[in-house]
Task: structure prediction
Amino acid sequence: LDGSDAGSATFNHDIILGNDSFVRFGDAGEKITGDGTDLTINSSNDLHLTATTDINIPADVGLTFGDDAEKIEGDGTDLTITGNNIKLTATADVVLAANTGLVLDGSGDEKIESDGTDISISVGSNGDINVPANVGVTFGDDGEKIEGDGTDLTISASALATIDAGTDIVLDAGGADV
Result:
């Protein structure tokens, strides 16, 4: 040890500490402890990782929170975020690239995706897109609306309503008048 350079120490080889030994910074609030199995970094406030490039965590090694109930882990291909509720609280948009969708089931049958121009909603075989009763689908400035209450369907327009078909238009009222 050379105390001539304002207390700096330079080592040209390993520093080996026994189990349950620690390196302490300032007071006991900041220290690094090893027990032969786990390495623990304690901080009395924030812990800053200030790398000038990436901070790398190996594939199949996760970052866990609390009692391991929440976890972020990558396998080199996919990133998995595990938790009870996963809340995205962005202060701006959450952006998905064009032609990258939001899959709502494991099979990929239920998906919302944009190609940069149109939005596609896919459902599974014989599936439906369900809009709850008394909730409408509106267009433009809400002047046109389609809404059902579980029994009756209402299609309304603030001006002209046009029904156009390439072939016949069939109105079937179950034998009642139209």
In short: Residues 112 and 121 are 5 Å apart (CA to CA). The mean pLDDT is 88. DSSP finds no helices and twelve strands in the chain. The radius of gyration is 31 Å.
